[in-house]
Structure formats: structure tokens, C-alpha cells
Amino acid sequence: MKDINCMGGCSSKLDNNRLTKILKLASTNLIGNEDSSIWNLENGKSLIESLDFFPQISDSLYTYGQITACNSISDIYAMGGKPEFALSILTVTKDMSDEDIALIIKGMKSILDPLKIKILGGHTIITNDLLCGLSVTGFVDNIDLKLNNTPKVGDILVISKPLGFGTIMAAKSIDMVNSNDYEEAIRWMTTPNELASIQSIKYNFNSLTDVTGFGLAGHLLEKLNNKFTASIQFKSIPLIKNVLDYLGNYIVNGALANNRRNYSKDIYFDEDTPFAMRQIFFDPQTSGGLLGTLSEKEYLRLIQDPKNVFTKIGVIKEKSNYLIKVEI
Hints:
This protein is α/β, with parallel strands linked by helices.
């Protein structure tokens, strides 16, 4: 097995169980699983604040900036909000040229400018490792606010982007990726979740989150909150082309292995489910899609929308002995 220590992007997120333990040790009350911090402005709106940064995930510094921007604003969209402005966080190495650093910022702006999201400032330091991210501020009408763990029994479970980004980037790091597969992953990672968020409001989603470093399994378990079971039809899950082949060749990054250890006990797979199909549930995503639930009535409206970006992957049911059940 090629267990690759590929910790770029959201693969570098601290283990969720470990983070919870640390917060308890620090005697903080910040424990929770929402995608952003929320502050009620008491005028029918709330302020939403989020912070994301991570190591380089692409050979291209410009693309790295694009992915960073998409990922950083995603948490605001996952709450049903509109990102308005951001502060940049950038640690650069002493051997980087001014032109290199500018490429990262240009990449971020290429995503933010069309969305009318302003970078108001930031903080840049010289250190041993390249890190890039944004602190993002957005606003949401309280009536449109989406929470992570509020699905209802009978809801349809949908996702707006394919899975497989973590595995593709791991394969890229050891020069074992097909260029078309890599380019497909990059296209998705540089696509903002704005339209998916708009549709979640239009079609009255009952819950919403984004799929990032903890993979589909981790973020879905947060949504279920030990109160529901999700029945998943594997064949319905959108995937990056050929990603199961990479997983079948045992290309596994370290974050996927961590996710599998943390979440596999809560997932039931049919006995004949192939190894690669099991692995994809734990694949860490960077700038992944939105994962939401909505009533069947609203889902039937959604799929009539010619711009629909969501794919049905399952149904929310009463809690049973496993929180996630996968059928192939």
C-alpha cells in the first residue's frame, strides 16, 4: 500500500476527535460542528465568520491561490450566506520571489473578484513553510440560515461535487496520475459553491454542510449527529473519473487513513463491497461540494431546475444500528 504523507489542502486538517479533546483540555466552550461562527445581528440577519488556510496543494502557485479562495469561502456558502470580504493569511519562504507570491494573490483574486468579494488586507510573514488562506466574513438572512445537523427523516441526501480530490492529489504527488484526471479535479476544486448555496435556499434545504478534510463519511456523520441513519446508494455517488482505479492500486494518503480509523465503525458496507469503494468514503476533499438534505417534494422541484448542480446519493431514515448504510 502506498500510504502517502500528502498533507496539502484540507488533508492537513487536525483530526476531529483530537481537536475536540484539545478544546476540552483548554476549557473552551467552542466545541461544535457548524461550518462557520455565527453572530446574530438582531436585525433579521447574522454575521458569519470563517477561517481556512493550508499548505500548497498544486504545482501552480496561481492554481493554489484559486483553490485556497474557493475552499475558504465555501464555509460561508455552506451556511446559506454570502461572503462579502476577507483578510489574507500568507506565510512565504525566504527563497520565494515577489513574482511567485504575487501569483498566489492573483489566483485568489481571480476567484473572489467575479463574486464581488473584497480582500481588505491581511498578514504575511516569512517562515519555513508556504501556507495560504483567508479569514472570510459573510452575512445571511436568518430565515435562510442553513445548519449542518438538522436533517429530517425522509429527506433526500444530495451532493454538488464529485468525490476523489484527495486521492487524485496523492497520485499527483508521486507522479502516478493521468493528466486528464488531475485537470478534472482541479476544475472542480476551482469552482465556487455559490450556485449550490443559492439552490439550497431556493429549494428549502433542511440541512447543509460542505465536504472537506474529513471526507464524505466524517461530514455526513456530523450531519446525522447520532440521531439518524443515512441510506446510501453507492452507484449514485458522483466520482472523479478513474479515482477507484487509483484507490484499487492502494494509493492512500495519510488523512484518508486517519478518517477511516475514526469513522469506519459507524458505516455498514455490503460484504462484497470492493476495497476501493469503501475507501472513497474517507477520501479528504479540498474545496469539496455542498452536502445537503431536503424534502422529497423540494427535491422534485430541484431536479426540474436546468441549472441544478446536485446529485441524489441517499435518503435520511430513522436511526438504526449503523449511522451510514451503503448499498452497491
